[in-house]
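Below is a concrete protein record.
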Amino acid sequence: MIAVAAVFILLLLLNMPIAYVIGIASCIFFFLEPNVSFSIAAQKMVVSTQSFTFLSVPFFLTAGCIMNAAGITDKLVDFAKTLTGHLTGGLAQVSIMLSALMGGISGSAVADASMEARFLGPSMLKDGYSKAFTAAVLSFGGLITATIPPSMGLIMYGYVGNISVGKLFVAGVVPGILMTLILMVPTHFISKKRGYKPVNPDPPKLGQVWSSFRKSFWALMFPVILVVGIRFGIFTTSEAGAFAIVYAVFVGKFIYKELNFKNFMEVLDSSITDNGSILMIVICAGIFSYVLTYSGAPAWLATFIAEITTNKYILLVGITAFLVFMGMIMDSAVNTLIFTPIFLPILQSVGVNGVHFGIIMMTVVTMGCMTPPVGTAMFSVCHILDCPTDEYMKEGMPYMIAILAEVILLIFVPQIATGLVTLLYGSC
């Protein structure tokens, strides 16, 4: 295992794509372990994809791409402007509200941040917002999609940890709304200090809100239909993903009438690329999980942690801090696939609810997409806006502090995540 770890770290430092880092490091183990057949590696690659639940990942990812091309984004932008355009720092507040609304569409923090950087970024710069502040707001706002359903991360966590994805979707609603409000706080004070003006001169009237809501109704109903449908057994998570594609095509073609054959084919092309990247990580993580289990590393780690403390809050704080660090150096999907089967049983053994931990874990590992050294959302937004990453991080610190404050609140007040689940399901 020492050789595997050394190769893993070396390839990571060489900035090799993370799927190949995991796959190559795992294969080294089979060359060094004579008692294990290399054919097991191939078997684990195949087995890791043979999950009915996992089908929902490519379905939801494709549905999100279709919705972005179907005119839904424009309607959500108008609705977000109506709700928050009158606040100090108007466009910045609009971007955060849009992230909350888009969370129910894209399910991907990186996709959300990149889309907003292209869509709202130029308007914010034109209105006098600094590049670094614009990049920070758009990037960290994308983190809201880590919990708002249908979050890709929550689906993967539920798949690996054998936790109900329906319960995870419900559990993510309140933390997602809370994060939206929390991120608006530093935005208000920074904007007030720098004189960033509202988009709208006055708060919206009820008629304006209703008119804007009607135009974006079909987009806003999407996450509601998913949660209700899964909760009441109308469809499973994977069937919900298939329904999402049909829903997206129907809304784009027959209601908003902006989806045509050309942009539909472009969407399929980009979604195939995105799905291929995720699938490559998943199959390589399947080998890595076997290597970890065979080596006894999870059992050793569980014993080691249990000898330190059995206090669930201390364990939860310690593991969360570790995941914050790992989120900075590895992709959120990889962290989910590798560390969920290691840490979830340990925490469950001391009384931590799996749904509660899932919301915390996906928040902190997804936050790594917004921070150096490998933050994919950070690099994407900074590239689009031509913003230096050091200036971006200076502006991003208030948002990072705000997010960590919410994580601490989630750790010690689990009802924020589990309350709605208990209300709808009767138990968590």
